[in-house]
Specification:
12% strand, 8 helices, 243 residues, disordered N terminus, alpha+beta
Length: 243
Amino acid sequence: MRGGAAAAAAVLIVLGAGVSGCKEDAIGSAGPEETAGGGGAGGGAALSAVDSLTVKGRAPKTGYSRERFGTAWADTDANHCDTRDDILKRDLKDVKYSDGTCKVSHGVLEPDPYGGKDVTFTRGRSLVDIDHLVALSDAWQKGAKYWDASKRIALANDPLNLAAVGASANRSKGDGDTATWLPPNKEYRCTYVAGQVAVKKKYGLWVTGSEKAAMKKVLSGCPGQKLPSGGNPTDAPKRFTAN
């Protein structure tokens, strides 16, 4: 997510829109899985999982910087590709590479989950972003400021918390949570909110009262939406550090 994004959409506009027709598909083409049971963040309906999240007020943003979550796109899974390329490979179709099977040079979002239209990725052009479903600034204000560096680095590079999306729609998000921003593509909102619930449950991040209400409002329109699971461990390898 881009830290310098424009202000998030107003909550009444976002939440007043209908949530019918939500698709119950997984985040990414081969990433987090939705399961009826099992480990990780998953295990049942996303709607019921909302009640397991701690409700607290938003803490001050004091002390936040991107560097507190480590170097951007660190190769925490040691596959010799950075996290950004891993997510591009996972989420794009018709992928082409500039160096073997790692550095993605071209691909297509079919469609962009946030905007609902196809977007072509060409390296060097800013048409596709890798978004943190739970923005790092939002995480900082809801628990992450109290973590050690390895857990913050893990969150920033966890495929469960990442999606390739169209830059145009994404840059209206800022560090918004469910109460202040939802994807313009209504059919993706259930999947998007379920992803945020999964990440917050996995990492023990709290939600505000208005955020919890917004999550339940969206997910009540798709009560069968499963909670995604999987991703990386919640502690990054010790070789990674953060300021």
